[in-house]
Specification:
With 229 residues, the protein is of the alpha/beta class. The protein has a single domain, classed as NAD(P)-binding Rossmann-like Domain (Rossmann fold, 3-Layer(aba) Sandwich), CATH 3.40.50. Helices cover 41% and strands 16% of the residues. It has an 8-stranded mixed β-sheet, sandwiched between helices. α5 packs parallel to α6. The longest helix is centred in the middle third of the chain and has 29 residues. The radius of gyration is 16 Å and the shape is globular. 46% of the residues are buried.
């Protein structure tokens, strides 16, 4: 899809105030889109959105783990909603996995993506066009050599399964849904030793927005190339 085709469309990026999410916001803005920078901390979102190259970006408070916050964000953008949704918000507990950490990761990574999608899907259905990109990880596949333990890849396996199920439900509606891995990137979550930059990870994600109307639906990709399930 050309940049011209995306110009003027509205996008929401959850977890958009830093790292890969902020780079996704920047790239979508460069496509001429009106971008809503989703953030739990509205002040942090305002600071991020104040960058000179983010003129068409507006911060939006949304805590994907809180149904009330998701509903409030939906209502704030109603009735138009958005044309593009990037479910990027995620957490990765590193120091042991307590039951509280498992619950938090489940609420943000898995149920959070589901909540936000269900909230912002109706206007896309009405228009007969949309793009939903669920940010996943290359660890969320049985083909990977190892998952390094922890709850994060488990929640992303669920995200992949939801992606495929939703894509089947939306087949023929003009809405394309795909899971995309940004790869291991240098960010607060990925750390400084990761081999890829946040910009590279963001470009992988934005590919899922720019696919043509006859593009893939219900797939799992990195850098535009299919990943095994």
């Amino acid at each position: 899809m050309t940049e011209t085709a995306l110009r003027g469309k509205r996008a929401l990026v959850t977890g958009g105030n830093r790292g890969i999410g902020l780079e996704v916001v920047r790239l979508l803005g460069e496509c001429g889109m009106s971008v809503f920078l989703g953030t739990r901390d509205l002040e942090a979102g305002r600071i991020a959105a104040s960058a000179p190259d983010l003129a068409e970006v507006r911060p939006l408070r949304i805590d994907v783990a809180d149904p009330g916050s998701v509903a409030a964000a939906r209502d704030e953008l109603a009735p138009a909603g958005v044309d593009v949704l990037v479910n990027n918000a995620g957490i990765n507990p590193r120091h042991g996995v307590t039951s509280e950490q498992v619950e938090a990761a489940w609420q943000v990574n898995a149920l959070g993506s589901w909540r936000v999608t269900q909230a912002f899907l109706p206007p896309m259905r009405e228009r007969g066009w949309g793009r939903i990109v669920n940010v996943s990880t290359e660890l969320a596949t049985n083909a990977h050599e190892g998952r390094a333990g922890g709850i994060y890849p488990v929640t992303k396996i669920v995200v992949n399964a939801m992606t495929r199920a939703l894509a089947e439900d939306l087949a023929g509606t003009g809405i394309l849904v795909n899971a995309v891995s940004p790869g291991w990137c240098r960010s607060d979550m990925g750390g400084n030793s990761a081999p890829r930059s946040a910009a590279q990870g963001a470009a992988s994600i934005v590919w899922g927005v720019t696919i043509s109307d006859d593009g893939p639906n219900g797939g799992f990709f990195q850098d535009g190339e299919p990943l095994p399930w």
